[in-house]
Amino acid sequence: MADLFWPGDERAGQAFDPGSFLGVMVDVESAWLHALQRAGLAPAGAYDLQALLGGGDLARIATSAEASGNPVVALVSLLRERLRARDEEAARWLHRGLTSQDVLDTALVLSARATARLVLLELDRQVESLTDLAERHRADLMAGRTLTQHAVPITFGLKAAQWLQGVLDARDDLRALRFPIQAGGAAGTLAALTELGGDVEAALSVAAAAAEELQLEDATPWHTNRAVVTRYADALVRANDAWGHVANDVLLLARPEIAELAEPAVEGRGGSSTMPQKANPVLSVLIRRAALTAPMQAAQLHLAAAANVDERPDGGWHTEWSALASLSRHTLTAASQTSELLTGLHVDTGRMAAVVKQQASALLAEHRSLASLSRDLSRDLPHDGGDADFDPGHYLGATASLIDRILARARSQEKP
Amino acid sequence: MADLFWPGDERAGQAFDPGSFLGVMVDVESAWLHALQRAGLAPAGAYDLQALLGGGDLARIATSAEASGNPVVALVSLLRERLRARDEEAARWLHRGLTSQDVLDTALVLSARATARLVLLELDRQVESLTDLAERHRADLMAGRTLTQHAVPITFGLKAAQWLQGVLDARDDLRALRFPIQAGGAAGTLAALTELGGDVEAALSVAAAAAEELQLEDATPWHTNRAVVTRYADALVRANDAWGHVANDVLLLARPEIAELAEPAVEGRGGSSTMPQKANPVLSVLIRRAALTAPMQAAQLHLAAAANVDERPDGGWHTEWSALASLSRHTLTAASQTSELLTGLHVDTGRMAAVVKQQASALLAEHRSLASLSRDLSRDLPHDGGDADFDPGHYLGATASLIDRILARARSQEKP
Amino acid sequence: MADLFWPGDERAGQAFDPGSFLGVMVDVESAWLHALQRAGLAPAGAYDLQALLGGGDLARIATSAEASGNPVVALVSLLRERLRARDEEAARWLHRGLTSQDVLDTALVLSARATARLVLLELDRQVESLTDLAERHRADLMAGRTLTQHAVPITFGLKAAQWLQGVLDARDDLRALRFPIQAGGAAGTLAALTELGGDVEAALSVAAAAAEELQLEDATPWHTNRAVVTRYADALVRANDAWGHVANDVLLLARPEIAELAEPAVEGRGGSSTMPQKANPVLSVLIRRAALTAPMQAAQLHLAAAANVDERPDGGWHTEWSALASLSRHTLTAASQTSELLTGLHVDTGRMAAVVKQQASALLAEHRSLASLSRDLSRDLPHDGGDADFDPGHYLGATASLIDRILARARSQEKP
Amino acid sequence: MADLFWPGDERAGQAFDPGSFLGVMVDVESAWLHALQRAGLAPAGAYDLQALLGGGDLARIATSAEASGNPVVALVSLLRERLRARDEEAARWLHRGLTSQDVLDTALVLSARATARLVLLELDRQVESLTDLAERHRADLMAGRTLTQHAVPITFGLKAAQWLQGVLDARDDLRALRFPIQAGGAAGTLAALTELGGDVEAALSVAAAAAEELQLEDATPWHTNRAVVTRYADALVRANDAWGHVANDVLLLARPEIAELAEPAVEGRGGSSTMPQKANPVLSVLIRRAALTAPMQAAQLHLAAAANVDERPDGGWHTEWSALASLSRHTLTAASQTSELLTGLHVDTGRMAAVVKQQASALLAEHRSLASLSRDLSRDLPHDGGDADFDPGHYLGATASLIDRILARARSQEKP
Fold it and tell me: Which residues of D71-102 are buried (b: 16+ CB within 10 A; e: fewer)?
């Protein structure tokens, strides 16, 4: 079960937490029992399955998970045993028609959706902060750097707009995700459910009803087709890519020798255990940590997808849990840390301007070479590169237009 | 340059191959020069830049690529030198306004698009073959296997339909890819181009004209936002995931002890250097090879994306080339191998039926347990599981409906 | 702290567990305080630092870990505060001379060593089981399979000996691991400790004394040189590679169509939530899970190593924790599962022999081709391949000698 | 064959290159034929197998490699056909007793050894350069940086010594590598060779003789135990980790705002296609590129190792080639680039000292806090932190001793 330690599960103390991953699995069994009831199969009656579980059950289920290879067998037998005390027939109907993977996959989808929604809220906050930064600093000059060296002038607004592009790309992918139920039974044929329901239509309608209660898409079984999982992972990685980009820039530009940016100062954060003066850029360090690990977690999930065989596979599926939980946990943390970083980012435009001034000669070398080209071509350029007093602020090219285009994209994608 | 060895480059013998990656970079310089001409900047005149290159140039450029960190500097200086002999002014205008990364990235996009188109053609062929297999074998019984053991009966049509699902998922993602030009100049501001063109509008229109000639999307610069690259990679991986699933099933079911499937027999393929009788399932082995390597290549590209810093980065970008080229090469090979595998797949329905017959007791264990449940519930099920002669073919649940749903999806996505 | 959830930490319930990772960090602080005392710096006196912590502290420290980027700052401030009540001067000396990374790295080394020792015990058990299997089945014929097809005969003893080779390779690497203390202070110069101790020799001797108490190697600081970590990870991966090989073979050979091997049967293991007859090969599935994930965890640690910069890095270090903890946890589980699998492995030699008999023609095709070669060469071979009654057991080549060589290697490496 | 494009193969132009990977495979067949001759099996006679191949053969073999899944089948049939013209009986004996994997694996080992030797030469050069840098700059003050911020003073000699540690760690692992022959025949039993040789001893002695000619270790077959491959890969990655560390530091410290280090200036290197003034740190960028990609290549090889099944596997093996070739190629390049970088590294000690002076207050914050501790403890420290004129050069702790320890390690490992 350590593999299925999902974001939020840290909160769980002694008592059973219905919001934990174990709780989400119970939600799935519950929705399924309701669907069997609505179809007139299981006996009517209201049971709060969540209430059947208590604090010590997580450990009990975790232990038997090792024996059956997944936690569902133990969960079902425990729920069934306790439900029996209330209603023997209902207990018999619990989980009927499902296989372990149906429950676990559907619970993963529900958890993934919850994570994706939280990440989307953070992305929306970030779009707002970045829009603001791009607008506010659209004309604030800074040195453009490429391959670590000074290149030509840019504005900090352009840098913020480029960060924004990455965030918008990630948001597009997260918004496009789809969250289907998994319900196929032993080998994806719904055979048991069909048998129990009397005919195929009844079986399909039970699955549809369970999907509806859980607000998931109804779908054909996808036990061995993991695009649902890998698209979610790819989208989270794309978000981490975008945040990693931001964090790298902040880590660099907040170095004392550059000092153009600084993380928001918060009492107690970034302290050192030995050096009282230090304010470590902890947000960026941890965001970068997530960005460095997310790609491998997604690769793990693709490997699991590619290892499929049979009607349900022998190990590929099991490798997903740890990667999914840890990718989700790191992403959620990085999402809120990036929001906080961007909201409170300290921008020292004076320092940026001073660097441009001091490095004007290097930053205008390209401009001078164009001037010399123009002389060769006997053709006038708008600015004379030979002029030692030429203002780097006049060599910004299409910066303003490019910022506008990106801001327009951000605006066009706002939700009403 | 070994890192930029792209699909098709093997064909290149002694002579310079305009279809090689080097040739594609020349196409980019060429389209850019045309755009400068159309804008009235560079002098009119038709130059075939491809014709300026010869067989030995690849090696020459490769050598200097090590010095400048990329092959563009050497390519431009070589093209400029040779063009000078024909038209000195045109030679001066070559590449003006671009940075190396503009050329290399745009060439990567063009190569990626060419690869994606070829892969899509193969996916279309596969959809056709799989539709055919799913329809033809919709009722051909076989053992459903889960976690390596016999579970409940399925049909081979359902397995083919599940393979089809994976292929459709991959096709959706490949169809959704977008291919933009990269044109930003030194630090993504189009400063040099603006200077040369006289104003921002002129600069933006040169970039737009070049995009149009190359049939790429016009776009704001994305030097440090690599969703273009990672989405392409993720889509290729998704295709490899789907094919790996097929290959794993074929490798298993073509084992002599199972022998339900066989690869198409082709004279000379799968031979052993020592055992004359062997017919190794070479297509599946190589498809599986691609599926096992693709996830890591995509992870490499995400890592590159997450390592972005400055206006153009110091190593992240450079790690993309090898991963992109090798992922594209392996995917193209696997795409055509999967098409060939599916088109000629030998399905032994007799053998499948025999296994079901022989393993009927195991395959109907779930059914028997339902019958016992129904007795407990004093409720009749359509079939009496206690019957020793019960036909596994009656325990297929919603198999036919599920196949129909997947086939309907395939049909709804056909291009007119 | 979820990233630092180490093997065994699951056991921790409500109360503080001195064996948890948090407890190991306290051991480090404790050994350091003792060393300061022995050097005459900190005041003499016995304090049980472990006793200062209670059940709720883990959560408290975990929360502030997010603020400072690591859990040490919070741990030290909590310990110092509580120690102050007993001995104000001792409290002031706690942690003096160390940086957070010193404590965390040393705790990781201690946890890694504990894990490595447990894994080595399991490897020793496996060497014993495999030696026994190789000896017992040295002459038990089975089909050799290559690229999924029947090749030539082998014995099961040879297969067991090959498994043994992999386990011996892994054991060599685990035995060679070295476990040094990390003690360098803020930037690896031991400046604070030197200042406090009065001279360099005193400082070095404090570090040496702490290493001695913890039974670790004394070492120069390795904040930015992570061979200690990556060698540990590589060795664990090598063990997982060996076990994955075993698990793949068992998963295949335990398929009902082959049925030459079976996992040890244990009441309640491998049950299905819906199919009563099934005995899923759960041990092998979970071993394979670990083998599929370990390589990526090690890659993560190498990436962290390669991302080093400055005297202590900005994110690389932080990516290690989750990968190390999860790799260690999975490896420990897989280690004991493999031992259990091998100890109780059911080998059906009758079934193996039957397959060889039935497939004799295919398994002797190479032999026949040699016979035909010998006729071409007019040279007698010991066996006449044309003989239809030729016994596959006579075509085993050097099988017995090869088994002996591997067994001899196993014996030569036994600890006295 | 693009997957088997090995370092040095770029050199191959039109003519067949005996040093190419194809040439190495021919060496293996040649050594084997000699061993068969020495055993009195194949007829005596000297044949230069390399001379049988010409320029077009690489392409021919590459094409058929796709059909048989590896290039050996085609190579052997081509060699046999051409040898037949000279000596029909020798042609029949060619490759007898080997399987394709024997040839390919042994050729990989030979190529790996050649690569490892070249890398070791570079590591030796680096040890020399770093020893020199550590000694020369042992007392040259610079700012110690942790988590991007200024921490306490160090010397550049200490930084160089830390780089040296990483290089020494890598060298240890590379020196410990072992390079065995692969010779097992179809399923690792040496059955064909035993049959041809008349008895087991003869067979084993042929394998031993071939190993001797190739100067490889004699070994039991390791078709499914890939520690040979993964240890080589892990060692290369460890070297890249060490170099990546160096490159990251150089990339940072060569930034114009810091400018404490600079890459050796070489005419034509690091030029920009548009900015004449720029000197991009191309060596470090490309070294970093290798360090960012090596971990994933090694993970690929471990995955291949973990995917073993049967006596020779169905895809795992095939995934090795591309990863091994590309890892070797990148590592060789990075090795020589790092040597060049270290040999010519420009160290600006004046600039380092100036930063220390300017940032003295921050760099001595820890020192001041110790002084305040000492006042609390009523205990004298050697230096009074309250002194505003305190020299950061007096707060170096054990720096000199630590440098000496590392230098001593380097010296103790010198080859005589």
Answer: bbbbbbbbbbebbeeeeeebbbbbbbbbbbbb
